[in-house]
Amino acid sequence: MTLWRSWHVHNELTHGKKAPPVEASTRFLSSYIETLLCLKQYPSADIAKGKMVISHQGKHITDQEENRNTNVLEERWLQPPRGWTKLNVDGAFNAENHTGGAGMILRGEGGHVIFSSCRYLRSCSSALEAELAACMEGIAIARAWSELLMIIETDCLTAAQMITQDGMNRSPCATMVTQIQRNLEEVGEHVISHVVRSRNKTADALVHIGHVKQRTAVWHSGGG
């Protein structure tokens, strides 16, 4: 994993880009290693939907069990390091009427909100499309409000893997993935991180506003 990341940094320098900070590489590798270990230990867990096994106080529980047990501490959202922002995104899909929703929130150092947003998706074909729509719109809005380095957190492992993978993407969502990757090139240094659902609660709440209330809106720190 270290050699793979080192080769990535080498390629960035070869193409005239700035070398990523060591801290960014550390967070990037830690996130991937955590996911791989979880897949190895719990191969039946549905990580793509956030039903991954997490560890609390020496116990291993699923997200569903966590919701039923109020005595178990949740993994909470962590603020970004100095000089970084953190974008949390989430999506929802209704298979009955093929609609969806997207929720996005960008926070800076100290956890202050730079912007939050929700969107009603009048036409949506899958849960993955809703997740990618949230990511694509969230990055686009974030670029308008901040020039700092960015961490993007999603509780959809499939979306995170598709965005970070190299090579040809032949999925129905290939066009969206390509657009997200292009937007990220303009962002510059960034980290894509898969997190458990308990660390993505605010984005999930925004999804509810967008999907259930069929509302599209953006709120930013300057008001409005």
TrEMBL record:
UniProt xrefs under Gene3D superfamilies? Ribonuclease H-like superfamily/Ribonuclease H
Write down the CDD domains for this protein, in alphabetical order. RNase_H_like
Domain RNase H type-1 per the UniProt entry, residue ranges: 88-208
* Domain of life where this protein originates: Eukaryota
What name does UniProt use for this protein?
Answer: RNase H type-1 domain-containing protein
Write one Gene Ontology MF term. nucleic acid binding
Where are the membrane-spanning stretches? none
Mention any Pfam family matching this sequence.
Answer: RVT_3
